[in-house]
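ERR on first pass: missing label on line 2. Operator R.T. fixed the label and resubmitted. Corrected input:
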Amino acid sequence: MRYIPITAADKEAMLRDIGVSSTEELFAANIPADIRLNRPLNLPPAQTEMEILSTMRDLVRENADTQQYICFLGAGAYDHYIPAAVDAFVRRGEFLTAYTPYQPEISQGVLQVIYEYQSLVCELTGMDVANASMYDGASALAEAAHMALNQTRRRKVVVAASVHPNHRRVLRTYTHASGVEVVEAPLTECRTDLERLAALVTDEVAAVLVQTPNFLGFLEPVREIEKLAHARGALFITAVDPISLGLLEAPGQYGADIVVAEGQSLGSALSFGGPYLGILATRESFMRKMPGRLAGATVDNRGQRGVVLTLQAREQHIRREKATSNICTNQALNALAATVYLTMLGKEGLREVANLCLQKAHYAAKQIAALPGYRLAAQAPFFKEFTVLCPEPPAEINRRLLGKKILGGFDTSREYPELPNAMTIAVTEQRTREQIDALVAALGEVK
Amino acid sequence: MAAVPFIFEVSSPGKRALRFPQPDVPTADPAELIPEEYLRSTPANLPEVSEVDVVRHFTQLSRLNHGVDVDFYPLGSCTMKYNPKVNEEAARLPGIAQTHPLQPAETVQGNLKLLHTMERWLCEITGMDRMTFQPAAGAHGELTGILIIRAYHESRGDTARRKVIVPDSAHGTNPATAAMAGCEVVTVKSAPDGSVDLEALRQVVGPDTAALMMTNPSTLGLFDPHVQEIAQIVHEAGGLVYYDGANMNAIMGYARPGDMGFDVVHLNLHKTFSTPHGGGGPGSGPVGVKEFLAPFLPVPTVEVKDGQYYFDWDRPQSIGKVTGFWGNFGVVARAFAYVLACGPELKQVSEYAVLNANYVMAHLRKYFDLPVDRYCMHECVLSAHTLKQETGVKTLDIAKALLDEGIHPPTIYFPLIVDEAMMIEPTETEDKATLDRFIQAMIRIYNEAKTDPEKVKGAPYKTAVGRLDEALAARRPNLRFTCDR
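pass 2 clean. output:
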């Protein structure tokens, strides 16, 4: 077997040292005979490296990838440019093949990366503290709700219907078992209806959860929602698009208590939905209620600066059933990608990429809204994604677009039946004017 | 090697790394497109550095880090085996890395087939019937599994089953998971050999038992010979039995959790199936279930009809979703490449993992305490109890002294039921020379503890930083860089 480097002679010498004649004796001493598998595993025969690559190439050859197709799909995963330096460090064995940094003296690389990642997230969101990462944006939202429930000792949360449908599904899965009630705040004009939200936010509500830009692409009236939530003693949790924070106000500035984000846009490949990056940041006062790993700076016994995992008394390996969460392995490598990404962009680069998305999305929206039969689903501000109402079912339109090698927008009417024939279109900095014009022309070919 | 400055400390106004093309569409002032109140008042204070600054910074940081690619990493329970480079190539094929999760099914048939095929393979390896790839890590798999078990009991109107039994030798994630799933944790004492104490188990099972969570081989690296009886006791009480797959590397091709009586299993693809740990993730924690639990799996499942693969969302008894899309697909793709590389020879993976652990144990038992005198499976647990009594040198000191040998220490102080524990998992991808070097290093440290204990207590000496003040870090948390610090 190619990944086993023990020679026949080594094996013999090792068995001799152990005092057995075969490895079978070691297994016989452990596993009762009646539960032994007495046949070979029914798997295809082992392949060489060349065969593995050709097998997998053949397997995915027919997939429509974003190198060959022009991608206007967003809805929680975005086709942003990834600087070459990102993958160079993601692939470095010292980072790639390390475990969670339990031995800080030989893990300063990962630990400092996590510390810098936490610092960058704080700068981006305007919050005081960030953790080392969660699984993805959806689980980060669910964990934030869990935090708020523990903090307020209330048993109900209100979530805007404009939060990503899958994130709401994960929230319900996480909260259902603990008997927590999840109430959805309805939309008006593609944004949270403030009046109806106000009626839902009672004194039993632990948190109000909103996403901005929301799933339909539009910006939520966060300042008004913040007032509504805090007036009733509920925490205000916002899910944001990290790229948008190059232009949009930092949630810390409008009173968010916990900020979560899907961090895929920050240097992680689309990769058919994962691995992505769950971002979670909060106020200093909630620091000890946070889930997940935290890196903190300290000093060593030689007087040098160093970084360790800290405040571990919150975590499962110490607190067991009293831990703030069961999370152990998280998404450190994606956090590394985000750290290199944000460093490569810097202060100016982030503003630049956000502005490119903004300008191109608005150019696209204007052209599409001018087509006969199409109109914007709402007259509300948006960033890089927007929802249009189409003259025919988006599934039909998308089928036609595929023929032109275009991956059309998300069929939003599937998730929001009150918005028939709605399509949500994402335009990142990678889309050229030519590509946008091609989309507009194709959309215009109504049958 | 000197400490590397924080990236913020090398920032200098006006420096740039990446630049984007000029806009090719008509532009407007952002304030004309978005009302002022939504716009950022002050830009995010990201570092301003050049590309060379970035590359040198992260290269220097990488040199301060130990990985399997650098040297031996016998971290027990973590299965730090070699992560094949071809897996990385496979995961970066455009059809895998550059496909959007919401593309129409007809445009991602390859990915759906990969998931469907991998599900069949892992079911064959574990003896289960169906599997989900949504969980992103082992603990996430545990949560998914316990939620499935709860949904099953609820579907039968058996709502009183809220207690999850966890042996005191279990990983900390087990009790934390049960609590997160809204269950009450019942800790049951293990027998001294780490196995489940049958009498203690009989006393705690009852009409309120939801499940027993069990690791087999146990965290002492020993297979529990009473596993079938354990499953029977729990089943007779109406509960289900959950298999923590952290130690699956010991038994592939030799035995299957499904044949031992387990109802739910999670695997750690980032342990057993050679995908890299990445410094703490991403992992992948697929969950396998027996047929009667399949209706409760997260939505969507991957199905095939007339040769066409599709997502099935129409599963009314499902626990719902546990992750934003379909799980850590890129990690599953790497593990897929690994199963292709091994095939039925996965049995040899376990064979050699067990051989290597026993070889290390056979040599080191002459120096350290062996809590249970039995051949181990893929890992062995030793104790520095006697050495500490004789010399004052603790397990922690031994771990730190190993750092100077360029070797990552074993897992220490776990399992909790062994005093001064060292949990050593060499894995099958290490050769005899590496194991001998480790054994010699441990013996050298042992001898030094006898002759010069203070020296061992002061280790490490050769690392970039010395022992770090963890108490200070917790007392005065400094969790982010700020310019005035």
